[in-house]
Amino acid sequence: MIISNRNRLRRNAAAAFAVAIALSLTSCGSNESDSASDESATATTTVAPELGPDGQQVVDIIDKQMKALDLTGAVYGVWRGDEVVAVGAAGQSPVGVPTAPDMQLRIGQPMEPMLSTVLLQLDGEGVLKQDEPISKWLPDFPRADQITPKMLADSTSGVSDYVTNPDFLKQFYANPIKGFTAAELIALANARPPLFEPGKSWAYAHSDLVLLGEVLQKATGKTLGELLQTRILDPLQMKDTHPVLNSQMSGPILHGYTNERGMFEDSTFWNPTAFLHSGNMNTTVADVATWMRALTDGTLLSKEQSTAMLGPSTAGIGPFTKDKFFAYGVLHDNAWIISNPSYGGYHGAVFHDSETKTLVIVYVTLGQNTPDPNTNNAMPAGTEIATMLVPNRPPA
């Protein structure tokens, strides 16, 4: 089937995440020349990777998937607890420049549980209550008296996802560098009817994160960037992670490439406010690892809060069970926590197993001949690595 350009962002940014969840649940997520693309597909790692036990197998999997999917570049990190399995990079980024493991990239979905962490912190401090209606902060939003911050964190509000709105897709593809405001995105969300009554079902929606970010800002009088900086990034010493409200990135940069608009182009500086509060953050693989460890260890929350955040609070809602569910911005598949960020040529796969403390992080950028840019092209490598390391309990 031929997918129109208009539909590609929807598939990349929304459907890709929902598909990962569906798979998890049913298992029990500048133009370049042809020669440049071919070169990127066969380029070997220039910076020698840091290898531990099983590290060479990780490198082999990355190289295999680079060739199979015609990827331009990849950065990755794999650990068992504090033990390094493999940390490295492959390919080129930008085309012609060897990729390095410390390159900046767009974080995507792993930003979402950061908002939930701040929500729980503020709830514990009495600044806001996660179960009280958002009408206190957004009185003019439809059904605000029935929607709570926790519903927004869980994607159970029923608010339509603006990313699947054809008007958003038209605006975004006309000028992906322009960016969006929260008011514009909320208007696009409200342009279509809600999907269900608040709290009665589940549907992943970027709209929920826009609203949650606005609630956190209004409740504290601080910007979300300030809240994330002081409550998460500074305490964890994530010095290479920065919330951004424009296209800026600091070097070295893992360049994004895509053909979503019908041509192969450098999408590095597409404005990430198209995913405001749910992915407008630059980071590195090392900082993503720091965040995932803190999230799973409950470093920034009380024991009770962490248990609640990682517990099956949405079991019984929609398709979810106590073993396979999505809550507080986190997808659970038994002992695995999974993220599959995908935006503007950046595809990521993040897997963490709570039993073995295995952590797998892979971010890739697409090539001119990538077979399907509408699916997450980091997931094959991430899944294969996770399965190799935990063969008796592989992630879905």
TrEMBL record:
SUPFAM superfamilies xrefs: beta-lactamase/transpeptidase-like
Region (Disordered): 30-53
Pfam hit, one: Beta-lactamase
Keyword Signal: yes
Keywords from the UniProt entry: Signal
Residue span, Beta-lactamase-related domain: 60-376
PROSITE patterns in alphabetical order: PROKAR_LIPOPROTEIN (PS51257)
InterPro entries: Beta-lactam-related, Beta-lactam/transpept-like, Diverse_Enzym_Activities
Name of the protein this chain belongs to: Beta-lactamase family protein
Organism, as annotated: Antrihabitans stalagmiti
